[in-house]
Design brief:
Blueprint: H1 4-56, E1 76-81, H2 91-106, H3 108-112, E2 116-121, H4 123-131, H5 149-164, E3 170-180, E4 183-192, H6 216-293
């Protein structure tokens, strides 16, 4: 049985841990509220650009853009968006598990022929694929400490440069989409070439007699990079909001477990202390009786 000092030391250690987890929960909750607001603000803008392109591209009779052109897929780049820090429950574990499943099940042949490259975003994703000797095209770490739109632009620039130089013919993103505090979905989406813009069910496209200034081709050429920047920005915001929600939940659970363990240890400490006091009283009484007999 542990001594009173050992139990007391353990109680002190758990109290310190509980303070840390409680503080991390509070910090995560503040970051989460801001991240949630950013996600909600970014979604309509991303949808509107997609809607404009969806209505505009079919009106162009001949349009040749490398970002839209479907070509033979010989090499693939997988962009995996994880977090820079841990202590966020199963956030990274589930994401990396899904990414590995996608690689093995869908792109196993490309992996064997070394035609699959990884672009990890977040230190956890980089460490995971680097230690397992995957081919890395580029990396982007420590971006979530102070996430800005420029970070999304830098990622898109790296991807477009590699795509135009034909280092890969298809780009797929795996990330966590924010749903609620207790739920996020791990999604796999094609990023390049830009998938055909399909109209929503029940809405057929009608060619409108618009006059474009400048030309519709110039407008699309200008909007496509903005569209890609906005999509990556939205993905980063979705992932960050999911991360903070997962960390907030994990730290709340850790704080609850620490409190329960403290209650158990305090009970054990009090019982051990009472047993020690009882033993000392018995020893005193026994000594007194021995002295009276002599």
């Amino acid at each position: 049985m542990a001594t009173l000092r050992e139990i007391k030391d353990r109680i002190g250690s758990i109290k310190n841990t509980e303070k840390i987890t409680r503080a991390m929960k509070m910090i995560a909750s503040v970051k989460f509220r801001k991240a949630q607001q950013n996600v909600i603000a970014a979604r309509p803008y991303a949808r509107k650009i997609s809607e404009i392109l969806r209505n505009l591209i079919p009106t162009i009779e001949s349009f040749d853009n490398e970002l839209l052109k479907q070509r033979e897929i010989k090499k693939i780049c997988l962009v995996v968006v994880a977090s820079d820090r841990g202590l966020c429950g199963s956030f990274n574990t589930n994401l990396l598990k899904t990414a590995t499943h996608v690689i093995n099940e869908k792109y196993g042949d490309f992996l064997k022929s070394h035609d699959l490259t990884i672009f990890p975003i977040g230190k956890k994703a980089y460490d995971y694929f680097y230690k397992r000797n995957y081919d890395l095209y580029a990396k982007s770490t420590n971006v979530f400490d102070r996430l800005t739109f420029a970070d999304a632009q830098n990622v898109v620039k790296e991807i477009i440069n590699g795509y135009l130089q034909k280092k890969f013919d298809k780009v797929v993103i795996v990330y966590n989409e924010f749903k609620s505090v207790v739920q996020s979905n791990t999604l796999e989406e094609q990023f390049l070439p830009i998938p055909p813009f399909e109209h929503e069910e029940g809405h057929k496209h009608k060619v409108s007699n618009y006059i474009f200034e400048p030309s519709s081709v110039d407008i699309v050429d200008n909007l496509l990079p903005r569209h890609l920047n906005t999509q990556i920005w939205r993905v980063l915001l979705e992932s960050f909001a999911s991360e903070q929600a997962a960390r907030m939940t994990a730290m709340d659970s850790a704080t609850t477990n620490a409190n329960e363990l403290l209650q158990s240890l305090n009970l054990t400490y009090n019982r051990a202390r009472q047993a020690k006091i009882t033993t000392e009283i018995l020893e005193i009484v026994g000594g007194a009786e021995a002295l009276s007999e002599t």
